[in-house]
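Design request, tokens follow.
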């Protein structure tokens, strides 16, 4: 006779243990379909955070231009400036707006210019400062307060 006690009776498996070992490969998670899933590409536009130091130095040493905000979409984070001396519209990114107000159509601005890689054919406004708020429009601060001008 052996002095070992009899083995304990088997315990029923807990719910999270029932699937252990049944699948050798990880199960795909069920997700709702998204039109952007798998298609997200980094933006080619250089924001203040992604601009190289040398490009920032070149832009800051350049002349100051004047223009009028043609349009700006806060939710998309970009807009365009119409130069005061004419010429094609200049791209404006949300990260390059200085000051407390979100630009709106008709605001007079000053800015410097920086080329957009990789071909450096197009220009982008940097160090944008609103000099005169468009009269008769509501302006919003970055924190969300609305001010009428």
């Amino acid at each position: 006779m052996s002095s070992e006690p009899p083995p304990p009776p088997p315990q029923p498996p807990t719910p999270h243990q029932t699937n252990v070992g049944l699948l050798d490969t990880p199960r795909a998670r069920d997700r709702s379909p998204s039109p952007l899933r798998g298609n997200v590409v980094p933006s080619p536009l250089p924001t203040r955070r992604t601009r190289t130091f040398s490009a920032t130095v070149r832009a800051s040493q350049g002349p100051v231009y004047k223009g009028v905000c043609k349009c700006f979409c806060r939710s998309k984070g970009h807009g365009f400036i119409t130069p005061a001396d004419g010429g094609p519209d200049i791209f404006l990114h949300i990260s390059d707006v200085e000051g407390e107000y979100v630009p709106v159509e008709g605001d007079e601005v000053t800015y410097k210019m920086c080329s957009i890689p990789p071909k450096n054919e197009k220009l982008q406004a940097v160090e944008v400062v609103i000099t005169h708020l468009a009269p008769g429009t509501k302006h919003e601060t970055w924190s969300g307060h609305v001010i009428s001008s």
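Comment from the thread starter after seeing the answer: thanks! The mean pLDDT is 77.
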